[in-house]
Amino acid sequence: MPRRQLYGRSKGKALRAAQAERIETMLPALAIDVGALKDGPAALFPAPPAQLMLEIGFGGGEHLAAMAKAHPEIGYFGVEPFLNGVAKLMAAIETDHLTNIRALRGDAREVLAALPDASLDRIYLLYPDPWPKRRQRKRRIVDMLFLSEVARVLKPGAEFRFATDIDDYAGWTLARIAQQEALVWLAERADDWRLAWPEWHRTRYEEKALREGRTPGYFRFIKRSA
Ligand SMILES: C[S@@+](CC[C@H](N)C(=O)[O-])C[C@H]1O[C@@H](n2cnc3c(N)ncnc32)[C@H](O)[C@@H]1O
Asked: What count of other Cβ atoms lies within 10 Å of the Cβ of residue 212?
């Protein structure tokens, strides 16, 4: 059965010459083939990084690049279907001489399916496409299969961090997490979700949400130790 398409367009405006050149020259060295993931994400780096973190749907890569810059000892791996987003990330990698990022242009569900069990120290899902209308909700990336794959690839005690500005998406995700025994919401107080986690780096989509008057919600889920 063909996979349901979750994202709309994967190509936007034509790339500018510099972006196109970056994609051509940098992507082959930094881009990962799904097949390469079976040996675990550490194998993507010349020396195994202290920790490995995945960002799903990195958009323009602002958060991924900022985290990689702040933590050169951590290996960051991003997946994003949108070519222009990948081109933006390449620009940041070039400007800041980042050597600890790898990227895959494609579907995060395929990446998760290809990763070995307990191979990641953290997964970020920041502002996934909201699909707010009732009939569109089945296109949301968060579903029970997605969460069970997230739980499978995280190491025990590792975190899945999720941000959204859509109340209904927060409720949707919490309802599914409650059915996913391996993941536990790390909330100490009822309004914890209003507080960005330490070292939060604002994304482009969050800036837009704030300009449009929506409230971000930040959720941290921990993978239970057996
Ligand atoms: C609303 S945007 C948010 C982008 C970025 N995280 C931010 O906060 O600025 C959602 C992103 O998820 C990407 N996306 C959609 N479906 C995806 C999938 N199946 N796998 C990976 N990324 C996906 C989209 O291309 C888009 O860049």
From this structure: 8
